[in-house]
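Hi Q.,

Before the meeting this afternoon, I wanted you to have the zinc ion prediction in hand. No need to reply - just skim if you have a minute. The sequence and ligand are here:
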Amino acid sequence: MGVIVDVFPARSDNYGYLVHDVATGRTASIDAPEAGPIRDALIARGWTLTDIFITHHHIDHVEAIPALKAEFGARVVGPRAEADKIADLDVLVGGGETIELGETTFAVYDTPGHTLGHIVFHDVVGGHLFSADALFSLGVGRMFEGTPGPMWAGVKALRELPDETLVYCGHEYTASNAKFALSVDPDNKALQQRAAEVTALREAGRPTIPFRLGEDKAANPFLRADDPILAAHYGLGGSDPAAVFAAIRKGKDTF
Ligand SMILES: [Zn+2]
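Predicted structure with the ligand bound:
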Protein backbone atom coordinates (compact mmCIF):
# COMPACT_ATOMS: atom_id res chain seq x y z
CA MET A 1 0.00 0.00 0.00
CA GLY A 2 2.99 2.25 0.43
CA VAL A 3 3.34 5.65 2.04
CA ILE A 4 1.85 9.12 1.66
CA VAL A 5 4.32 11.99 2.10
CA ASP A 6 3.17 15.37 3.40
CA VAL A 7 5.48 18.32 2.69
CA PHE A 8 5.30 21.60 4.63
CA PRO A 9 7.58 24.52 5.53
CA ALA A 10 9.12 24.80 9.00
CA ARG A 11 11.41 27.38 10.66
CA SER A 12 12.71 29.97 8.20
CA ASP A 13 13.88 27.69 5.38
CA ASN A 14 13.53 24.06 6.46
CA TYR A 15 11.11 21.55 5.03
CA GLY A 16 9.09 19.31 7.31
CA TYR A 17 8.00 15.89 6.08
CA LEU A 18 5.45 13.45 7.44
CA VAL A 19 5.58 9.92 6.08
CA HIS A 20 2.39 7.92 6.60
CA ASP A 21 2.39 4.13 6.20
CA VAL A 22 -1.05 3.54 4.73
CA ALA A 23 -1.35 -0.11 5.79
CA THR A 24 -0.77 0.47 9.50
CA GLY A 25 -1.30 4.20 10.03
CA ARG A 26 2.15 4.64 11.52
CA THR A 27 3.43 8.14 10.79
CA ALA A 28 6.99 9.42 10.97
CA SER A 29 8.29 12.95 11.00
CA ILE A 30 11.52 13.17 9.05
CA ASP A 31 13.66 15.21 11.45
CA ALA A 32 12.13 17.49 14.07
CA PRO A 33 12.68 21.08 12.94
CA GLU A 34 9.73 22.71 14.74
CA ALA A 35 6.86 21.25 16.78
CA GLY A 36 4.11 23.69 15.70
CA PRO A 37 4.13 23.05 11.93
CA ILE A 38 4.53 19.29 12.50
CA ARG A 39 1.53 19.25 14.85
CA ASP A 40 -0.52 21.34 12.39
CA ALA A 41 0.32 18.98 9.53
CA LEU A 42 -0.69 15.97 11.64
CA ILE A 43 -4.02 17.58 12.53
CA ALA A 44 -4.70 18.59 8.91
CA ARG A 45 -4.16 14.98 7.78
CA GLY A 46 -5.79 13.33 10.78
CA TRP A 47 -2.60 11.36 11.51
CA THR A 48 -0.92 10.56 14.85
CA LEU A 49 2.84 10.76 15.19
CA THR A 50 4.40 7.37 16.03
CA ASP A 51 8.00 7.82 14.86
CA ILE A 52 10.68 10.44 14.29
CA PHE A 53 13.54 9.66 11.89
CA ILE A 54 16.53 11.89 12.57
CA THR A 55 19.24 12.49 9.93
CA HIS A 56 21.84 14.53 11.82
CA HIS A 57 22.48 16.52 14.97
CA HIS A 58 22.04 20.13 13.78
CA ILE A 59 19.61 22.11 15.91
CA ASP A 60 17.24 22.88 13.02
CA HIS A 61 16.71 19.11 12.59
CA VAL A 62 16.44 17.99 16.24
CA GLU A 63 15.09 20.88 18.29
CA ALA A 64 11.51 19.60 18.48
CA ILE A 65 12.38 16.03 19.54
CA PRO A 66 11.66 16.57 23.29
CA ALA A 67 8.34 18.35 22.65
CA LEU A 68 7.12 15.77 20.11
CA LYS A 69 8.23 12.86 22.25
CA ALA A 70 6.45 14.29 25.27
CA GLU A 71 3.26 14.92 23.32
CA PHE A 72 3.06 11.74 21.22
CA GLY A 73 5.43 9.23 22.86
CA ALA A 74 6.97 8.75 19.42
CA ARG A 75 9.86 6.33 18.84
CA VAL A 76 12.97 8.29 17.84
CA VAL A 77 15.31 6.68 15.30
CA GLY A 78 18.66 8.33 14.60
CA PRO A 79 22.28 8.01 13.55
CA ARG A 80 24.38 5.73 15.75
CA ALA A 81 27.46 7.83 14.94
CA GLU A 82 25.82 10.92 16.46
CA ALA A 83 24.16 9.27 19.46
CA ASP A 84 26.36 11.33 21.80
CA LYS A 85 25.13 14.57 20.20
CA ILE A 86 21.36 13.89 20.06
CA ALA A 87 19.26 13.41 23.18
CA ASP A 88 16.30 11.04 23.35
CA LEU A 89 17.22 8.58 20.57
CA ASP A 90 15.48 5.20 21.07
CA VAL A 91 16.79 3.24 18.07
CA LEU A 92 20.26 3.71 16.56
CA VAL A 93 20.91 2.97 12.90
CA GLY A 94 23.72 3.33 10.37
CA GLY A 95 24.48 2.76 6.72
CA GLY A 96 23.58 -0.67 5.36
CA GLU A 97 20.85 -1.21 7.94
CA THR A 98 17.10 -0.92 7.55
CA ILE A 99 14.33 0.52 9.70
CA GLU A 100 10.60 -0.23 9.45
CA LEU A 101 7.70 2.17 9.54
CA GLY A 102 4.78 -0.23 9.79
CA GLU A 103 4.95 -2.28 6.59
CA THR A 104 7.37 0.08 4.84
CA THR A 105 11.11 -0.61 4.91
CA PHE A 106 13.65 2.19 4.75
CA ALA A 107 17.26 1.52 3.80
CA VAL A 108 19.74 3.70 5.69
CA TYR A 109 22.75 5.24 3.93
CA ASP A 110 25.77 6.90 5.51
CA THR A 111 26.31 10.34 3.97
CA PRO A 112 29.20 11.89 5.92
CA GLY A 113 30.43 15.41 5.17
CA HIS A 114 27.79 17.93 6.23
CA THR A 115 28.10 16.21 9.61
CA LEU A 116 30.24 13.12 10.18
CA GLY A 117 27.35 10.86 11.15
CA HIS A 118 24.71 12.17 8.73
CA ILE A 119 22.36 9.45 7.46
CA VAL A 120 19.53 9.39 4.91
CA PHE A 121 16.44 7.19 4.63
CA HIS A 122 15.34 5.50 1.41
CA ASP A 123 11.88 3.97 1.00
CA VAL A 124 13.02 1.25 -1.38
CA VAL A 125 9.63 0.12 -2.70
CA GLY A 126 8.01 3.55 -2.93
CA GLY A 127 11.14 5.25 -4.28
CA HIS A 128 11.25 8.13 -1.80
CA LEU A 129 14.62 9.39 -0.55
CA PHE A 130 14.79 11.67 2.50
CA SER A 131 18.18 13.27 2.05
CA ALA A 132 18.10 16.15 4.59
CA ASP A 133 21.32 18.19 4.21
CA ALA A 134 23.34 15.51 2.37
CA LEU A 135 21.82 16.04 -1.08
CA PHE A 136 19.89 19.11 -2.23
CA SER A 137 18.36 19.81 -5.61
CA LEU A 138 21.41 20.93 -7.66
CA GLY A 139 23.66 20.92 -4.58
CA VAL A 140 24.89 19.28 -1.40
CA GLY A 141 25.13 20.52 2.18
CA ARG A 142 28.06 22.51 3.42
CA MET A 143 30.99 20.32 4.47
CA PHE A 144 31.05 21.26 8.16
CA GLU A 145 32.64 18.12 9.62
CA GLY A 146 33.77 15.70 6.96
CA THR A 147 36.35 15.45 4.21
CA PRO A 148 35.74 15.41 0.44
CA GLY A 149 36.56 11.72 -0.18
CA PRO A 150 33.92 10.15 2.09
CA MET A 151 31.42 12.92 1.23
CA TRP A 152 31.82 12.18 -2.48
CA ALA A 153 31.51 8.44 -1.80
CA GLY A 154 28.27 9.06 0.10
CA VAL A 155 26.56 11.06 -2.65
CA LYS A 156 27.91 8.67 -5.29
CA ALA A 157 26.11 5.82 -3.52
CA LEU A 158 22.88 7.82 -3.63
CA ARG A 159 23.47 8.39 -7.34
CA GLU A 160 23.13 4.61 -7.82
CA LEU A 161 19.45 4.78 -6.83
CA PRO A 162 16.85 4.67 -9.63
CA ASP A 163 16.22 7.78 -11.76
CA GLU A 164 12.53 7.82 -10.74
CA THR A 165 13.47 8.26 -7.07
CA LEU A 166 11.77 11.31 -5.55
CA VAL A 167 14.16 13.24 -3.32
CA TYR A 168 12.97 15.23 -0.29
CA CYS A 169 15.78 17.40 1.09
CA GLY A 170 16.05 19.57 4.18
CA HIS A 171 15.99 23.07 2.71
CA GLU A 172 14.75 25.18 -0.20
CA TYR A 173 18.16 26.17 -1.59
CA THR A 174 17.51 25.20 -5.20
CA ALA A 175 17.46 28.66 -6.80
CA SER A 176 20.84 29.68 -5.36
CA ASN A 177 22.24 26.22 -6.12
CA ALA A 178 21.11 26.65 -9.73
CA LYS A 179 22.98 29.96 -10.05
CA PHE A 180 26.20 28.38 -8.83
CA ALA A 181 25.74 25.23 -10.94
CA LEU A 182 25.29 27.32 -14.11
CA SER A 183 28.53 29.18 -13.30
CA VAL A 184 30.59 25.97 -13.34
CA ASP A 185 28.67 23.93 -15.94
CA PRO A 186 27.12 26.56 -18.25
CA ASP A 187 26.65 24.38 -21.35
CA ASN A 188 24.72 21.61 -19.56
CA LYS A 189 21.28 21.40 -21.24
CA ALA A 190 19.71 19.37 -18.40
CA LEU A 191 20.91 22.00 -15.93
CA GLN A 192 19.63 24.89 -18.05
CA GLN A 193 16.24 23.18 -18.25
CA ARG A 194 16.07 22.52 -14.50
CA ALA A 195 17.19 26.09 -13.71
CA ALA A 196 14.38 27.50 -15.87
CA GLU A 197 11.88 25.19 -14.19
CA VAL A 198 13.14 26.27 -10.75
CA THR A 199 12.77 29.96 -11.64
CA ALA A 200 9.18 29.35 -12.77
CA LEU A 201 8.32 27.36 -9.63
CA ARG A 202 9.77 29.97 -7.28
CA GLU A 203 8.09 32.85 -9.12
CA ALA A 204 4.81 30.98 -8.65
CA GLY A 205 5.62 30.63 -4.93
CA ARG A 206 5.87 26.86 -5.23
CA PRO A 207 8.47 24.49 -3.73
CA THR A 208 11.10 22.85 -5.93
CA ILE A 209 10.82 19.75 -3.72
CA PRO A 210 10.54 16.83 -4.20
CA PHE A 211 12.78 16.47 -7.21
CA ARG A 212 13.55 13.51 -9.46
CA LEU A 213 16.96 11.98 -8.83
CA GLY A 214 17.45 11.20 -12.53
CA GLU A 215 17.19 14.89 -13.44
CA ASP A 216 19.59 15.81 -10.64
CA LYS A 217 22.13 13.20 -11.80
CA ALA A 218 22.31 15.07 -15.09
CA ALA A 219 22.28 18.60 -13.65
CA ASN A 220 23.82 18.68 -10.14
CA PRO A 221 27.56 19.44 -10.42
CA PHE A 222 28.24 17.61 -7.16
CA LEU A 223 26.82 14.41 -8.69
CA ARG A 224 28.99 15.02 -11.77
CA ALA A 225 32.37 15.32 -10.02
CA ASP A 226 33.64 12.38 -12.11
CA ASP A 227 32.55 14.02 -15.38
CA PRO A 228 35.54 15.33 -17.39
CA ILE A 229 33.63 18.58 -18.04
CA LEU A 230 33.67 19.50 -14.33
CA ALA A 231 37.29 18.38 -13.94
CA ALA A 232 38.25 20.57 -16.91
CA HIS A 233 36.42 23.57 -15.43
CA TYR A 234 38.73 23.41 -12.41
CA GLY A 235 41.86 22.48 -14.40
CA LEU A 236 41.84 19.07 -12.72
CA GLY A 237 41.64 16.77 -15.76
CA GLY A 238 42.73 13.24 -14.82
CA SER A 239 42.45 13.93 -11.08
CA ASP A 240 40.62 11.84 -8.49
CA PRO A 241 36.91 12.81 -8.65
CA ALA A 242 37.10 13.47 -4.90
CA ALA A 243 39.52 16.33 -5.67
CA VAL A 244 37.07 17.72 -8.22
CA PHE A 245 34.24 17.33 -5.68
CA ALA A 246 36.38 19.26 -3.16
CA ALA A 247 36.96 22.04 -5.69
CA ILE A 248 33.24 22.32 -6.45
CA ARG A 249 32.39 22.40 -2.73
CA LYS A 250 35.03 25.08 -2.09
CA GLY A 251 33.78 27.06 -5.09
CA LYS A 252 30.23 27.03 -3.76
CA ASP A 253 31.39 28.14 -0.30
CA THR A 254 32.75 31.38 -1.71
CA PHE A 255 30.24 31.89 -4.57
ZN1 LIG B 1 22.43 20.53 8.84
